[in-house]
UniProtKB/TrEMBL annotation, chain A:
Biological source species: Hoeflea marina
Entry keyword set: Amino-acid transport, Membrane, Transmembrane, Transmembrane helix, Transport
Organism classification: Bacteria, Pseudomonadati, Pseudomonadota, Alphaproteobacteria, Hyphomicrobiales
Protein name: Amino acid ABC transporter membrane protein (PAAT family)
Membrane topology of the entry: Multi-pass membrane protein
GO biological process: amino acid transport; transmembrane transport
InterPro entries, per the entry: ArtM/GltK/GlnP/TcyL/YhdX-like, MetI-like, MetI-like_sf
UniProt-listed PROSITE patterns: ABC_TM1
Top-level taxon in the UniProt lineage: Bacteria
Gene3D superfamilies listed in its UniProt record: MetI-like
First-listed, main subcellular location of the protein, grouped into a coarse class: membrane
Keyword Ribosomal protein: no
Compartment annotation: Cell membrane
Automatic annotation (TrEMBL), chain B:
Source lineage: Bacteria, Pseudomonadati, Pseudomonadota, Alphaproteobacteria, Hyphomicrobiales
Protein name: Amino acid ABC transporter ATP-binding protein (PAAT family)
Coiled-coil portions: none
Organism: Hoeflea marina
Subcellular location, record wording: Cell membrane
Signal peptide: none
């Protein structure tokens, strides 16, 4: 019996208030068990942590003065902004694309299935560094992008350099690569939904698009969000590879550039680590709220079930 | 057949066959359910009872024969002896004529009881939310769940969940209700409350096809009982005939086991 049940009984709010035993229920006075072992371990850990902290803080090799000089330097802050932007935009593009890939794979049309399978095979099977380098070379390989009738007249043509800028190349590389992983996660999420859900939706006359948006996607979200959170943090760290494009405004490039100039790599690695931790923390807060939203209807207490 | 029979017939199955790959699950089923009639299907597990219901609302496509509801051919347009499949949109429009209640409830777990009930009216029929809520609350009241509209399925007992599922099907105002073993997944003490709700629909004149192992309930509410085995209707008739003194040996053998 949960505490709420007991309160309910004491208040006499239960539907069958006439039943005996609901009047003078007295909770047992429970004396907490003591855990001396836990305390011992906790004290030990605190001592070790303090010593390690002191060892780092007083260690001249860490160059804390340099750390604080550059932690909030505009150059670094701009890197933080770009890294966050690359992460968020890449995820915002890859999530709907991955969803489309899943829907294509579940479609009866074998051509759509094949395209989706090929996409995942290609982007999962080649290194992200190589993909980023190719996106960087896009304007060299295809100087003009044109829209034309196949084997017919050209309708529209632009210079590739104006379209596939380094930022666009970086985002395209990161997001296309990510769709391959996300679509596998999403597929597993949709597979976990009972077939009866689709059947119940069909039975009330829902069409396929409605079943996806109203029934399947909201339910899959609950399963999909934790691993997608992981992937987002993964993309955050992959942004340090955009040098391959080359794109040179991200956080890792900024701190590396300063480190090379000052010959002090350690404090600048610490600056970068601090900011990556900070961004990860922000992303985790977002994940917490998303999980809570899509967890509704699950993991809830059974109140007053007859 | 009399010419005016199309006006009184609700569901009409005409030598319906169903194959699952190689497996022949329905082997020529002929069945007529009149409007307002309660047709109960009994039979051993695997005899094709669920398949029969699922062919009526096109959760399964048939491999031969015809299914008609109110005289309208389901799933196809027939022209010059050929069958042309309907579009997915047309199929879902036909499905709105039937309501289905599943053995395992299949409520949408991410929606409250009331949201489950108004999902069809709002997102399929495009009803205004306020109106749908009013009707939904009345329906929950009708199945004895007034005040529980804000509960999620996980917060309801099996019997309560199944009653929400019945309200969800009723919300689409179907012409025929299909029940596939609606009490088989319930604890014994919860069976009664669901059967009560079904009985109230019987009194209201709803046309029904019901698969059940509750022989006593079948005797009480059925107008027409069919006994299925190995994909065919072995025997059918009024409950007093079929359940009282069955002619076929297979029916007798089955009834002696379940009664
Ligand atoms: N989706 C399916 N794929 C293959 N075989 C199926 C499928 N559904 C049902 N069957 C088979 O068809 C037969 C009839 O099943 P069903 O209609 O569920 O029987 P009942 O409801 O009478 O127990 C069974 O032998 C079952 O194994
Ligand atoms: Mg069955």
């Amino acid at each position: 019996m949960t505490k709420d049940d007991i309160n309910e009984l004491q208040d006499g709010r239960r539907p069958n208030a006439a039943a005996p035993c609901n009047v003078d229920v007295v909770q047992n006075r429970v004396v907490q068990r003591r855990h001396p072992g836990r305390w011992l371990v906790a004290i030990l850990i605190v001592i070790i942590a303090l010593q390690a902290g002191q060892g780092m803080a007083n260690n001249p090799n860490f160059h804390w003065d340099t750390y604080f000089t550059y932690l909030f330097s505009p150059f670094v802050l701009r890197g933080v902004g770009w890294t966050l932007l690359l992460t968020v935009v890449s995820m915002a593009i890859s999530i709907p694309l991955a969803l489309a890939l899943v829907i294509m794979r579940e479609n009866e049309n074998p051509i759509l299935q094949g395209v989706a399978w090929f996409w995942v095979w290609f982007f999962r099977g080649t290194p992200i560094y190589t993909q980023l380098a190719f996106w960087g070379l896009f304007a060299v390989l295809f100087p003009r992008i044109s829209v034309a009738v196949p084997f017919g007249p050209e309708l529209l043509s632009v210079d590739s350099r104006w379209v596939v800028t380094p930022a666009v190349a970086a985002i395209a590389g990161l997001s296309f690569n990510e769709t391959a992983y996300l679509s596998e996660i999403f597929r597993a999420g949709f597979r976990a939904i009972d077939r009866g859900q689709t059947e119940a939706a069909q039975a009330i006359g829902m069409t396929k698009p409605k079943i996806w948006t109203r029934i399947l996607i909201p339910q899959a979200m609950r399963i999909i969000i934790p691993p997608t959170g992981n992937e987002t943090i993964g993309v955050l760290k992959l942004t340090s590879l955009v040098l391959a494009v080359p794109f040179t405004l991200d956080l890792t490039f900024a701190t590396n550039a300063i480190a090379n100039r000052t010959y002090l790599p350690v404090p600048l690695l610490l600056v970068a680590a601090t900011w990556y931790l900070f961004i990860t923390s922000i992303l985790m807060v977002g994940q917490y709220y998303l999980e809570r939203h899509y967890g509704r209807g699950h993991d809830m207490p059974k109140e007053g079930v007859r | 057949m009399m010419s005016n029979s199309t006006h009184t017939l609700s569901v009409e199955m005409d030598s319906v066959h169903k194959h699952y790959g190689q497996y022949h699950a329905l082997r020529g089923v002929d069945l007529k359910v009149a409007k307002g009639e309660i047709c109960v299907a009994i039979g051993p597990s695997g005899s094709g009872k669920s398949t029969l219901l699922r062919c009526v609302n096109q959760l399964e496509s048939i491999s031969g024969g015809r299914v008609k509801i109110n005289g309208e051919l389901q799933g196809y347009r027939e022209r010059d002896g050929s069958f042309y499949p309907l579009s997915p949109g047309q199929v879902s429009r036909q499905r709105r004529r039937t309501g289905m209640v599943f053995q395992r409830f299949n409520l949408f777990p991410h929606m409250t009881a009331l949201q489950n009930v108004i999902e069809g009216p709002v997102h399929v029929n495009g009803e205004r939310k306020a109106e749908a809520r009013q009707r939904g609350l009345a329906l929950l009241d009708r199945v004895g769940l007034a005040g529980l509209g804000d509960r999620y399925p996980a917060q309801l007992s099996g019997g309560q969940q199944q009653r929400v599922a019945i309200a969800r099907a009723l919300a689409m105002e179907p012409e025929v209700m299909l029940f596939d073993e609606p009490t088989s997944a319930l604890d014994p003490e919860l069976v009664g409350e669901v059967l009560e709700v079904i009985k109230s629909l019987v009194s209201a004149g709803m046309t029904m096809m019901l698969v059940t192992h509750e022989i006593g309930f079948a005797r009480e509410v059925a107008d027409h009982v069919i006994f299925m085995d190995e994909g065919v209707i072995v025997e059918e008739g009024r409950p007093s005939e079929l359940l009282g003194n069955a002619r076929e040996q297979r029916t007798q053998a089955f009834l002696s086991k379940v009664l």
